[in-house]
Amino acid sequence: MARNALSEDERESRRQILLEAAHRLYRERGVLPPVADIATAAGLAKGTVYLYFRTKEEIFVALLEDGFARLFAALGPVLDGLPRGGAAVAAQFARHFGQLVAASGDLLPLAALANAVLEQNLPVEPMRRFKTALAQGIAAAGARLEAHTGLAPAGSGETLLLHTYALTLGLWQALSYPAALKILLKEPELRGLDRDFANELENAIAALWRGAFH
Amino acid sequence: MARNALSEDERESRRQILLEAAHRLYRERGVLPPVADIATAAGLAKGTVYLYFRTKEEIFVALLEDGFARLFAALGPVLDGLPRGGAAVAAQFARHFGQLVAASGDLLPLAALANAVLEQNLPVEPMRRFKTALAQGIAAAGARLEAHTGLAPAGSGETLLLHTYALTLGLWQALSYPAALKILLKEPELRGLDRDFANELENAIAALWRGAFH
Amino acid sequence: MARNALSEDERESRRQILLEAAHRLYRERGVLPPVADIATAAGLAKGTVYLYFRTKEEIFVALLEDGFARLFAALGPVLDGLPRGGAAVAAQFARHFGQLVAASGDLLPLAALANAVLEQNLPVEPMRRFKTALAQGIAAAGARLEAHTGLAPAGSGETLLLHTYALTLGLWQALSYPAALKILLKEPELRGLDRDFANELENAIAALWRGAFH
Amino acid sequence: MARNALSEDERESRRQILLEAAHRLYRERGVLPPVADIATAAGLAKGTVYLYFRTKEEIFVALLEDGFARLFAALGPVLDGLPRGGAAVAAQFARHFGQLVAASGDLLPLAALANAVLEQNLPVEPMRRFKTALAQGIAAAGARLEAHTGLAPAGSGETLLLHTYALTLGLWQALSYPAALKILLKEPELRGLDRDFANELENAIAALWRGAFH
DNA sequence: TATGAATGAGAATTCATTCAT
DNA sequence: CATGAATGAATTCTCATTCAT
């Protein structure tokens, strides 16, 4: 059993090394890197990657899962600190949420990839894991939100957080540009799309929450 | 002068045939089809496709452009019919907008693809065209929105519509599933994500607009 | 007949325009340009090119033919001016021939292409035309060479000129580099191949001729 | 450490199999064969080829490198056997060199391809390797030539061998014909170009060397 | 467990040439 | 004669994944 535990630790550590390598390469290149590169960056052989992940996409879904877990963990205190009801809730949440998102690194680009790319070649099970974690994270946070702010009826907290996530994801996609197209934004006709994501996000979330709280 | 140059109409009609073929294949398969298939589906030869579009991605951006043009065209009357100020604006817009989106067909999946995939292999110029049309459509609609509802200050209409677009896009991604994963939604842990998109969208937009109008 | 003659002139003029366009594009790009580009550069339509040349290669063989015709024309006076026998012949010819080659523009790169590329897709007849012109040019010049210098036996002039051509062509290939590889020449190990073509050619030809004249 | 990494020998042997397959196909067809065909001929899969060579052109440059290495190896004894100075050198070298070239197989057609085709799509590094080997081979042989024959000044041996190579390459191009055009040679106007390469080469080289040695 | 050699499906794009008008 | 739209053959190279060792 001791041997097993140790093996389990080693296994987990290998997994983490692979995840970090994949994450780093993705950050550097802006596209899903080839498995061979991930293996090399992790100091392992190509075949070894497949002892830890069944497909390349599974690696990135795992990354996504980690990212969301961290985000939800950070979200707890923010929700707990919200004032009961009233006008201040929206503004306060929007500000804190904006900071959380800013600190979440590559979560958004990765999440945007999820639908378009990752889900194409993914065994069902990791997908279930990810979606389940997402659903449960939102549900738990929703309950907490309702408890602290008095938002009613039951379920409306979950719904609001789902919308919050959607707005965040969509806004990031509307405002983010691949490096090659950044220049376009300087053209006068595109001024309307050249907005600061962080600032825009805070305003949008604040509006959504004001509306949800009336 | 050229005896057999294609007339502008003929050329446009060929283009439309290609666009429709591409659109249909995309709808059927859920992924960007190979150019060879598009050509065949359009009754043309592979090389011919490249007389009308420089890259495969350009085809789909053109589709996107058309879709948005139609959406904006339909949006005009909706905005014009909004009541001046007041509480009713949000609910009325949300209902009509939901219908517009429902009628827009594949616009959303295609738009979701834009960032992740289409922008990878696209000459700048069609990208500029698309983004410019989008920016101008939003700006024009924003002005109209302000004029009819009295929303102030200037620019807030444009901003609200940008957020509306983002929320729509993000929500679609959060709630849509590739066919292979639809079964997952029946599992109890995922009940929270098994929501009707149309209904959810209407609620979310209504909240956002209520918040924007206070 | 007047009409015919005029047509004939027009036809020849069109041909020349095409040849010049092809030549210019080849000079600019260093590779055989697409037919479409040649047509555009000549202000004609793509199909029109095929009214004047049966294949793309035929265009470039025609260019080659022109180039050699000019070279042979210029070679005549050089041969006529050679001293009868003696040691001075080699040096004098080498010097003049080097100038001719230098003035011949793209003849060498084109000639180098002939074997590797042009002959792959060429109707027999233009090939015959070209080779015949080449053979006759060399034979005529050989006779002239023999007459003036007293080189014997009969045929040895032709042979010497054939060898002269071969040495020129081979030397150009050994010493010429595509732009992308010019940098290589600065490396010390490659110093031996970094020679001035004009100078090298003169020396090589002089040696060959000295040997031929004993 | 790697349990099943290929040994250097095995890897080299695979490489050789690929080279031989490529060589054979080139000989049979007279054009660079598609990679797919090379792979099939070597009993390997297409992708495998790219584990050994980065581009198709690299294969043929490797072939060229091998060929020249063999030629230089065979050239050594020939140079060592040359008489010191005097009139006999040229004739003796020409005869032996002609035999070497005759035994070198496809070296010449391949070398003729180098400029026109191979250099178009070649990573710099294999190109450097090849050119460096060529330069060093010529330099070393040149020094040997000077040592044995007393040819002076220093460097003139290298120069003479460069010219020898150029003359050989150019002559081959002037006299060789693709199979489809061999028939042309029977026409009387082309009699001047219908020469036996081996014989012609010996004469040309002899003349060049006589001239170089005075 | 780890390795890394081998696999081969997969797809975009170019461009010479034809031919209906 | 001229046009230029249409054709479709042709080929490279990448890369996820497997599996013998």
> What integer is the average pLDDT of chain A?
92
Would you report the number of β strands of chain A? 0
Tally of DSSP helical segments of chain A: 9
CATH topology of the largest domain in chain A: Tetracycline Repressor, domain 2
The largest inter-chain interface, given as chain pair and residues per side, is: A-B, 58 and 58 residues
**Oligomer designation:** homotetramer
H and E order of chain A: HHHHHHHHH
Residue windows where pLDDT falls under 50 for at least 5 positions of chain A: none
Describe the structure.
Four copies of one chain form a homotetramer. By secondary structure, chain A is mostly helical. Chain A has helices at residues 2-29, 35-41, 46-52, 56-80, 88-102, 107-116, 124-149, 156-175, 197-212. In chain A, helix 4 (56-80) packs antiparallel against helix 5 (88-102), helix 5 runs antiparallel to helix 9 and helix 8 (156-175) runs antiparallel to helix 9 (197-212). The first copy, chain A, is globular. Chains A and B meet through helix 6, helix 7, helix 8 and helix 9 of A and helix 6, helix 7, helix 8 and helix 9 of B.
Name a few traits of the molecule.
homotetramer, 214 residues, mainly alpha, Arc Repressor Mutant, subunit A, 2 domains, DNA-binding
What is the element layout, followed by pairings?
Four copies of one chain form a homotetramer.
Chain A: H1 2-29, H2 35-41, H3 46-52, H4 56-80, H5 88-102, H6 107-116, H7 124-149, H8 156-175, H9 197-212
The structure holds a DNA duplex (21 and 21 nucleotides).
Please give a quick description of this structure.
By secondary structure, chain A is mainly alpha-helical. Chain A has helices spanning 2-29, 35-41, 46-52, 56-80, 88-102, 107-116, 124-149, 156-175, 197-212.
